[in-house]
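Inputs:
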Amino acid sequence: MEKDGSTVIYPTLLEEAIKWAHKNSLWPMPFATSCCGIEVMSTLSSTYDLSRFGAEVVRFSPRQADLLIVAGTITTKMAPVLRSIYEQILEPKWVISMGACACSGGGIFDTYSVLMGIDQVIPVDVYVPGCPPIPEGLIHSILHLQQVIEKSAERRPAMRPNHEDAMNAMSYRKSAQET
Amino acid sequence: MGNALLEKYSEGRLCLADTTGEPVLWTNSIADAFDLLKRLHADDTLKFDFLSDLTAYDNGDRRDGAKRFVLVYQILSTVTHARLRIKLGVDEGEEPLSLVSLWPGANWLEREVFDMYGIKFNGHPNLRRILMDERFTGHPLRKEYPLRERQPFPDNIPLHLGAHPLPHDVIHDDIYNPNILINIGPAHPAFHGTLRVMCRLNGETIEDAACEIGYLHRGMEKLGEYKTYHQWLVYTDRMNYCSALNNNIAYSMTVEKLMGITVTERCMWLRMMLMELARIIDHIICVAINALDMGAMTVFWLMYYWREEAYTMIESLCGMRLTTTATRIGGMSYDIPDDFIPRMKKFVKDFPSCLVEINRLLTGNRIWIDRTKNVGKISKEDALKLSITGPCLRASGIDFDLRRDRPYYAYNEVVFDVAIGTHGDVYDRYLVRMEEMRQSLRIIEQCIERLPGGPIWVEDPRVRIPEKADVYTKMEVMIHHFKIFMEGINVPSGEVYNAVEGPNGELGFYIVSRGGPKAWRMRVKAPSFMLFQSYEHSIIGYKIPDAIANLGSLNIIAGELDR
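Outputs:
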């Protein structure tokens, strides 16, 4: 639409148009369990204002969201919940793993009850380091994700556990425990 | 007070004082311990009406008697403000008597001890695991349990409303059944990510409820036994992450007490100022999120602006916004930057305008009053029985504030009022929090006025971390620095319980040291734990939306709840 009201036609591929729509209207679902969740709130609040990047429509129902922001420590007790939430999100879906705990279990919480990184149970698209990452870090990751969507960057299969892999990772086998 | 107590109750029992001189009573008989607690609870002059904490530690090296475990009861009087610790040696297989008949608040504490140590309590109504999955084998806080032995399970825990899981056919019942079972959480927006509550509804009214916690149990207490005292400082940030400064300071204070260190004047006033700033941030989050959960979004936008202001100040102090690690044992990581005090002055001057605005938006608002008044009531008696602390206790009408009643640092030299509610409902908790923010501003003002110059570090070679410039230029200093960080500071053996008035209530650290750089037992008495236990009771008889309003007003922080 031009300013004077006359229409202009942009010839493009349908695929490109869908990508453009996807990247500019990500609907995040924050799976905020701990400290990083507070920074997600900061990012959404007035000072940092995530709506500038089209990702402010926070949906707490996985059926309505297409971006899962996992913010905080995921314990072994929480892992099945995370997996079932991920499976309820409709395709296409993306995952941002926010903070050291979600990315790798963190150097610091290497204990009997903490899952060592959410990529054991769900596929992750962007990792945000930091403990917790500052709001700029989360905004950067969303901008990066927009580029990933735009360029249709290939997602490496090694880092994308399917349902069976996740179930294996979440099953307790005493023999498999490393000492 | 201590002497009278020891005379009256010490017959046949070993009386000791811990590192700070607090009385400790030792007993090795289960019946005697219960009898003692019962008599202390009923005593009219001592008035020990409050169970602060109930925990245990592994006595695997048999340095505290011949029994395998030691149970530790911390009791407190909200009238005389005295504290008493009672210790009971328990062997494996012995079943101490449950305290639920005296203090219903002991319910969850005993479940936690059972979960972590495998000590069974005789007469407990619902003794099942609380933090770990119920299929978990072993007890994580026993010394023989390996730190990294994980036991994941591929599905979530089924619904419970009591000791046993509910069968599946009851859950999927027909819609005409008046007893509808409903599960809220753990991934529910109003339940802060990790809390879960299971309710039985009759129509819309909640008739029975049970909370399930442990979705953020990260094993911090176990880590406390594996990390040096300085290393564990970073974990305190991640407990109540809304007011990390408060945790840092409370923890450093505890270790300092154990080592007999008194911090410098400047450090003390600075810490007080930072604690009050942290309290304001925590209350901002509580009020804003409580309002947001009920649909009042404007409050969230307005208050978060001021929270960002406070965070930028904290960032200039220690480089982090949320997880500060601002203190060190014996001092602070950095002295305040030059522009900190002017910024703080500006904050103290301008922030009340925000409070006035929120007051205008909420206090007289018809919708807010309808949603919050007479909702989630906790009576005076219930508050004491359930051992809740902090603003929620004061909202129930009990005049108890550790800052005034058991003053630490220089809280007895500053002037402030303690806000008290009358009904113990959500509205009163909101009002108490609003008033506490004003009082915190008053304390900050006085701290700014009285902040002395001088060193921020205590000159004690055991803990003094050398200046970086010296570390790079002088060899002795470098060796000293290396020893402090690689070996850790050497803390003498002893034990101490130290509590401060955190934003949510009594935040206590109980450290048992056997000497050396690591603690033998690191116990955190977290206020959220007891608050969330009271939630089970205070939502019964109300509707689901009331439960949401109630939860927001309790300000449960999952990191602190599950540790």
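Remarks. Chain B touches chain A through 53 residues (CB under 8 Å). The longest helix of chain B spans residues 265-293.
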